[in-house]
Amino acid sequence: MSAALIELSGIERVFHLGDSEVHALRHLDIRVAASEYVAVMGPSGSGKSTLLNLLGLLDRPNAGTYRLEGCDVTTLSAKEQARVRSERIGFVFQSFHLVPRLTAAENIALPMILAGIAPPRRAERVARALRDYGLENRANHRPDQLSGGQRQRVAIARATIMQPALILADEPTGNLDRNTGEEVMRLLEGLNDQGVTLIVVTHDGDLGARARRQLLMADGVLEQDRWRSPRVD
């Protein structure tokens, strides 16, 4: 196995609801190598979304250590975590999460604006992304003027514009028809083939079966860690 991109050790996440404690994650130990393709699966309440939020530095564990590319990111300040999130992690969501008032090109450029990248370089990268994702004739369209597949392609372009090491995809085909969902998965898997680590969170068994590795969650515990032979396209 290649070098570890993600190392989780003894991760615990507890939520307090009134007088009750909900153990969303329990003593989780997971190692994901660079360039892996992993599906995180399980029923509602199994801890999938909590794990996704922790991996994406959108939440912090109550206990344990999360190392990303060898750095203990659990010890970083909120500002430092935001920088790592911006530069090394891309997100693709079921509901796209595009900014409604921005065009496709402006949505794609947004991470670079937040990172302070100069306008000429932004324009060059956005033009290349629009071309790569077949969106050149949709560059000036707002999300409400795009189809579901086009919106998800904009979201993937935005997620990868900073050239991250890790893409986290949360039910990426959930709002798409079968054919469009297949197209989106091929785009994501193409990125994985280029060396980007891809983690897909899903309750869809067929979608999860595409991954080379399945992490099966239940009640905050990793119940199974299954490996499959590489997919055949």
TrEMBL record:
One cellular component term from this protein's GO annotations in UniProt: plasma membrane
Entries under InterPro entries matching the protein: AAA+_ATPase, ABC_transporter-like_ATP-bd, ABC_transporter-like_CS, ABC_transpr_LolD-like, MacB-like_ATP-bd, P-loop_NTPase
Keyword annotations: Antibiotic resistance, ATP-binding, Cell membrane, Membrane, Nucleotide-binding, Transmembrane, Transmembrane helix, Transport
Annotated ABC transporter domain residues: 6-232
SUPFAM superfamilies assigned to the protein according to its UniProt record, in alphabetical order: P-loop containing nucleoside triphosphate hydrolases
GO process annotations (BP): response to antibiotic
GO function term, MF aspect, one: ATP binding
Claim: Methyltransferase is one of the keywords in the record: no
Protein family per UniProt: Belongs to the ABC transporter superfamily. Macrolide exporter (TC 3.A.1.122) family.
UniProt protein name: ABC transporter ATP-binding protein YtrE
Organism: Candidatus Accumulibacter cognatus
